[in-house]
Amino acid sequence: MDDRYDAKTIEERWQRVWEEARAWHVPNPDPTADRSRKAYVLEMLPYPSGTLHMGHVLVYTIGDVLARFRRRQGWTVLHPIGFDSFGLPAENAAIREGGHPREITERNIAHITREMKRMGWSLDWDRVMAAHTPEYYRWTQWLFLRLYEAGLAYRKAAPVKWCPRDQAVLANEQVHDGRCEYCGAEVEARNLEQWFFRTTRYADELLDALEGLDWPERVKAMQRNWIGRSEGAEVLFRIEELDRDVPVFTTRPDTLYGATFFVLAPEHPLVEEIAARMDDPEQLRAYVRRAAAKRGEERAAAEHKTGVSTGFHAVNPVNGERIPIWVADYVLMDYGTGAIMAVPGHDRRDFDFARAFGLPVVRVVEPAEGESELPYESKERSDRLVNSGRFDGLPVPEAQRAIVAWLAEEGRGREAVSYRLRDWGFSRQRYWGCPIPIVYCERCGEVPVPDEELPVLLPELEDYRPQGIAPLAGAEEWVRTPCPRCGGEGRREVETMDTFVDSSWYFLRYCDARNDEAPFKREIVDWWCPVDQYIGGIDHTTMHMIYARFFMKALNDIGLVGFREPFQRFFTNGWVQLGGTKMSKSKGNVIGPDELLEAYGADPVRLYVLFIGPADEDMEWTDEGIEGMVRFVRRLYRLVSEVAERAPRGEPPASALTRKAHETIAKVTDDIGRRLSFNTAIAAVMELVNELQRAGAEDPAARFAAETAVSLIQPYAPHVAEELWQRLGHERLWAEPWPEADPALLTRDTFELVVQVNGKVRDRIQVEASLSEDELVARAKASPKVQAHLDGGEIRKTIVVPRKLVNFVL
Question: Helical H runs in 31-187?
Answer without folding.
Answer: 54-72, 88-97, 101-118, 134-149
